[in-house]
Specification:
The complex is a heterodimer of chains A (309) and B (277).
Chain A (H helix, E strand, L loop, with lengths): L1 E12 L9 E12 L3 E6 L5 H9 L6 E6 L7 H4 L2 E4 L11 H12 L5 H10 L15 H13 L5 E5 L7 H17 L2 E5 L3 H7 L2 E6 L2 E7 H5 E11 L4 H7 L2 E2 L5 E5 L3 H13 L3 E9 L2 H8 L3 H6 L1
Parallel strand pairs in A: 3-7, 3-8, 5-6, 6-7
Antiparallel strand pairs in A: 1-2, 1-4, 8-9, 10-12, 10-13, 11-12
Helix pairs in contact in A: 3-4, 4-5
Chain B lengths: L1 H14 L2 H20 E6 L2 E7 L2 E3 L4 E2 H27 L3 H5 L5 H6 L4 H35 L5 H27 L2 H19 L1 H5 L6 H11 L4 H12 L6 H28 L3
Helix pairs in contact in B: 1-6, 2-6, 3-6, 3-7, 3-8, 3-11, 6-7, 6-12, 7-8, 7-11, 7-12, 8-11
Classes of the chains: A alpha/beta (309), B alpha+beta (277).
């Protein structure tokens, strides 16, 4: 079953008789995420990421198209009961203690006998010992942890996390990654929106690049960034390009650059030996893996600009 | 019902706000001062002497319950108008606070229906108004009861009427807050409704000042839909002072108040259901 499904999703803010056409935040978005996946949505500010998340939660109503979460309409409370959400800037009541806040969230989630679950999640996010303190005195990182605990309450099947590691120290980030890995192992689907591309890369196995309310690219992280079994090789001229292509070498960017797939070192060396037999002379060999920043820049058509920067 | 969870959280939040801490402290201080500084000598059910801060207050010797009536009437007006004004100022922020960025998205992501959030906020403020009125009026009744032996629940009924009046006005304030997300506009609408409600309560007399015709019709038309604040305050005073109350007129006033409050709340829920956050 699909955890998230969006078809032709459009959202236009404002507009009307006196205000013109309005601002199109989502422009026909199509996306399908299977249950158990870890999906990261990336894009520049104003790309429509937050609007899409809000549409998933029923916080904004689409202007057109269909969105379904865990097979149901997001407006259906029984669907939202299985979702854990961490907003980018969670407003926390200053006068509450973490226990009071989480107990309130648990009641609204319909979790009965929630005391043990509240204590468990507080411990899990590393806030043990802070149960009696008022949230007003918490640091940004502590608030973020508490927000994550609220999202985790009740073992949701879909976790929608908007900048989950924002304001969290490096060790805290590692802890959060561990928690997210545990949740995934439990069977939960992760939907992550983060500006920290390295975090997204480490947590997610699928990536979507959003721009102007449209999904520019989407797929497994290996497909977008390259993979550990794909190599970039450079041969010194002269070379027989046709012969190399016949061996499985595909032309890459740059003079004498080719890309080739090899499942293991033996296969790679075998391919290189056969290439040398065509007269090609190897001068460079690297894994063909790009980081998400490069992929994002390329998708947004800014690869050239970044190269000159 | 999830609305009660929202209402309970609102009460907890209110307990930490300075406005409400000051109200609780003020009421408590007032009751303590009255309790400690007021001395009333009752002989055979008649109030023989009264001393306030040790100074004799000139009173005729008369039945204690009769002697207390003006005090209860004055207290009733104080609770009614004081409570309305305090409520308008102190509760104006609850609506915008519910809709604060980062909070409303989180609440709407939970398995709660949208109307439950609004109803919960309304119920929380209603409970707050009832608690404040009951504490103040109940405290006065208790103090005068202990000092004179006259225990009358009329002041409490009068205070409940003030709470219900405020709740109807708060329904409109909440609707304004939903539409504009502004505490200032919410408070301004509450203040305007109190003033217009005072005018509406006197609409029969005031309409005489307008020339018969379109201006009088417009005035009567506008004030027709407003809660009759001054009439309700007068009725509350009459109840507290054990004066005869026109029950048919009071029932009509209360029905009008309930219709106004529910209509305002329904409009607020309608706006909230359609709104994106």
């Amino acid at each position: 079953m699909l955890a998230i499904e969006a078809r032709g999703l459009r959202k236009t803010y404002g507009g009307g008789f006196s205000r013109g056409a309005g601002k199109e935040a989502l422009a026909g978005l199509d996306l399908a995420i299977s249950e158990g996946a870890a999906f990261g949505l990336i894009g520049l500010n104003g790309a429509g990421k937050t609007t899409f998340i809000k549409a998933l939660l029923g916080v904004v109503r689409p202007s057109a198209g269909v969105v379904r979460v865990l097979g149901k309409d997001p407006e259906d409370p029984s669907a939202r009961a299985k979702i854990g959400y961490l907003p980018e800037r969670l407003f926390l009541p200053h006068a509450f203690t973490p226990v009071q806040f989480l107990a309130s969230v648990a009641r609204l989630k319909g979790i009965s006998e929630a005391d043990d679950e509240v204590r468990r999640q507080i411990g899990r996010v590393g806030l043990s010992g802070e149960e009696g303190r008022r949230i007003g005195g918490f640091s940004k990182g502590m608030r973020q942890r508490l927000g994550l605990a609220a999202a985790l309450l009740g073992g949701p099947m879909l976790l929608v996390l908007d900048e989950p590691t924002d304001g969290v120290d490096p060790l805290g980030r590692a802890e959060i990654r561990r928690i997210l890995a545990e949740e995934r192992a439990r069977g939960a689907t992760l939907f992550l929106n983060s500006h920290l591309l390295s975090e997204t890369e480490r947590v997610c196995d699928r990536i979507g690049i959003l721009s102007g309310g449209r999904l520019l690219r989407e797929g497994p992280i290996e497909a977008l960034c390259g993979s550990e079994t794909r190599y970039r090789v450079r041969f010194a001229p002269p070379l027989d390009a046709a012969a190399l292509e016949a061996l499985g070498f595909r032309p890459g960017e740059g003079d004498g650059v080719f890309v080739v797939d090899a499942p293991d070192p033996t296969a790679l060396n075998d391919l290189l030996d056969r290439a040398r037999r065509t007269g090609a002379r190897l001068v460079g060999l690297t894994h063909d893996v790009r980081d998400l920043e490069d992929v994002l820049a390329e998708a947004l058509g800014q690869g050239g600009e970044r190269g000159h920067a | 019902m999830k609305s009660f969870v929202v209402a309970r959280d609102l009460l907890r939040e209110a307990a930490s706000r300075r406005w409400f801490l000051a109200l609780g402290l003020g009421i408590t201080l007032g009751l303590v001062v009255i309790g400690l500084s007021l001395r009333m000598d009752v002989v055979d059910g008649a109030l023989a002497a009264t001393r306030f801060f040790g100074k004799s207050v000139n009173t005729q010797i008369r039945a204690a319950d009769l002697a207390l009536r003006p005090v209860f009437v004055a207290s009733s007006y104080l609770i009614f108008y004081g409570g309305l004004l305090f409520g308008v100022v102190a509760c104006a922020d609850f609506g915008p606070s519910l809709l604060a960025p980062g909070r409303i998205e989180h609440l709407l992501s939970l398995p709660v229906r949208r109307f439950e959030l609004i109803v919960g906020t309304f119920l929380g403020v209603l409970a707050l108004a009832l608690l404040g009125a009951l504490y103040g009026a109940g405290g006065l009744v208790l103090i005068f009861g202990v000092k004179t032996g006259v225990y009358s629940g009329r002041l409490i009924v009068s205070a409940l009427l003030a709470s219900v009046t405020f709740s109807a006005i708060y329904g409109a304030m909440l609707t304004v807050a939903i539409a504009a997300r502004s505490a200032a506009l919410s408070a301004a609408s509450g203040g305007a409704l109190v003033l217009l409600g005072i005018v509406a309560g006197e609409r029969e007399r005031i309409s005489e000042f307008f020339d018969p015709g379109i201006s009088r019709t417009i005035f009567r038309g506008i004030t027709l839909f407003l809660p009759r604040v001054s009439s309700l305050a007068r009725s509350a005073g009459e109840i507290a002072g054990a004066q005869p109350v026109d029950s048919a007129a009071l029932t009509s006033l209360l029905l009008g108040l309930v219709v106004f409050g529910l209509a305002a709340l329904s409009l607020g829920i309608h706006l909230f259901e359609r709104k994106d956050f």
